[in-house]
Amino acid sequence: xTPNPFVYxxxxxxxxxxxxxxxQSELADLLKEHxxxxxxETISKMENGNRSISVAELRALASIFHVSVDIFFEDAxxxxxxxxxxxxxxxxxxxxxxxxxxxHAMVSSxxxxxxxYKERKQFVPMEPFWKGMERK
Length: 136
What we know:
The chain is built from 6 helices and no strands. It has helices spanning 5-19, 24-33, 40-47, 55-65, 76-87, 94-120. Helix 2 (24-33) crosses helix 3. The longest helix has 27 residues, at 94-120.
């Protein structure tokens, strides 16, 4: 999944806008009809992933392009499978436990990297969480 979800959302907005043969100004005008008042420059920032996008804006965009808001989110199927895994009532299999352990290690590593970066304001290499893990 993209580290900044707004980059993916922006690329989807651009793709939909271009497929509809709309300029950024024309899209801004259509958004006004849905109660969303944005400038062309703001649309550009959204498309480049340099601005957050509100739920109301996503709903208006989905309505304009006649698509589901799901199109703005990456890897929806993968996320659904994780939800399914966590909702299981029966005990986890060895493979599922190993999978969850690897996710936990990855998240812990990322949190550690973020803390170090914020403290030092620079990237600090760490041992990859997967190093030494058995490949199947």
